[in-house]
Amino acid sequence: MDYNVIVVGGGVGGLATAIRSAELGKKVAIIEKSEIGGECINRACIPSKTLIDSAKIVNKIMKSSWIASTAKIDYAEMNKFKNQIINGIKDNLLQVLKKYNVDIIRGKGEIKNEGEVIVSGKTYTTDNIVIATGSEPLSLPDFPLNGKNVVDPWTAMNMPNLPDNIIIVGGGVAGVELATLFRALNKNITIIELMPRLLPVPGIDIEIANEVKKRLEEKGVKIYVNTKSKIVKTDDKVVFTAQTPSSTEEISGDLAVITIGRKPVTDGIDLKNIKVETDQRGYIKVDNRARTSNPKIYAVGDVAGVPLSATKAWRQGIVAGDNIGGKTSEMPKYIPSSIFADLEIGVVGSTLEELKKANINAREIKVNMKDIPRAWTVNEIEGFLKVIIGEDGKILGANMVGEGATEVINTIALAMELSLKVQDLYKVQFSHPTISEIIIEAVQRAIVGEIY
To answer: Is the domain of 132 the same as that of 160?
Structure first.
């Protein structure tokens, strides 16, 4: 055998698998046809957060009346900074791969038979294969991508120049983040969402969605919900027909960004011949150890199905690497999600409404950001935390919108994964003044009563 493990795909899931397998003593190669780091590091998570954080800095200055200054974004310079960040992170990862003697094979990996991967006509043999080929935008009949004025989110975000009028199809995570960024660049933004609310995502509380909608509208974003739309013209302007609950409208813009629709990337892989099962949408079926129906083949990241997130991909890669290396490991029960809008959002577990539908008794504790001293000192008193507590005192879910929500939610996920009860957390003290004290305030209210 040439290798113990060959990972096909150098995105975050593939990287995590390769590094962990190598750390556990395996001879590993990773095959990548484009850039190490995949979508997340090169085009999605990292660049989008870099750009959004830049916008947040400007917003923070502009709303701080005691700071005698003005600020605006230099889009060209911001993109240079974004590229520096991407290269810095990739360089770090390449150093780790080098440290553990992971071979990088450039090209498209094809799998026709078990134990063999073909790259540019050369066949490499291996004991284990890990499929980490990700997903890609799906061009839908009503929203056909043309690479010019109808594009996917990551193409839009990496354009050297943006037009003034942008229409975003889909009010999910990507749609909300892009609307936040583009509006901060003084673009005219319209969101069109088919469902009756923004962020129609399992685990996200309706009050969170309403708060995000309110904030975006206050900043001038026009939002259509419960609206069925399709593109009817792309010659000069992009023109949509939009059927709202009360009327049919024509909406036009310079650029349409389609944030809905993705499909797994499995071209060049003979899934049937290597006995790897998929679901109805073509995503590879895996168990909680990232194993496919073929015990010698693993799959991680987007290609292994929902949730299509880098958070899941990183962990699934580690789990696959552990098990390949002989260390028993399973996916966590709770995977937090973060949304980097104008106000950060963090969610984990279930909402109270979801639990009610499942006939599970629970109660909700809500703490407003304005109750937390640190929120005042950083001039970020909007938002709230909701914690859902079961009859036995275990935390079943949490939703937060506000400053630091994407960090706070990780602490709650830790408590949930370890099956801690609010009675256990009542013994814990967080440092003061911090945003994360909002967790302890929720615990205080669950056990006895409010302190702040």
So the answer is: no
